[in-house]
Amino acid sequence: MLWVAIAIAGLVATAVAVALAVRRVLFLYRLATSGQPAPERVEYARENAGAEVRAQLVEVFGQRKLLKWTPSG
After folding, report:
1. 73 inside domain
2. Mind spelling out the 3-state secondary structure of 26-46?
3. CA pair distance 32, 28, nearest whole angstrom
4. Which domain of life is it from (predicted)?
5. Structural domain of residue 7, as residue ranges?
6. Rounded distance, CA 66 to CA 47, Å?
7. Tens of pLDDT along 5-24?
């Protein structure tokens, strides 16, 4: 009987977590689509896809700002 209570509690917790995740995704989608369209930005990104990807990789994984700092000592 205890396993039934644990299973029900787990299902309830999962349902709450999924509901919160869906709510957050919808909020972020509405936030991202609330601005004015920028067709020139999309066109530029398509024409320069390689440079855009490289810039993101350098900025995110390379931490360009951190590499500009001199080490202490």
Report:
1. no
2. HHHHHHHCCCCCCHHHHHHHH
3. 6
4. Bacteria
5. 2-35+43-68
6. 29
7. 999 999 999 999 999 999 99
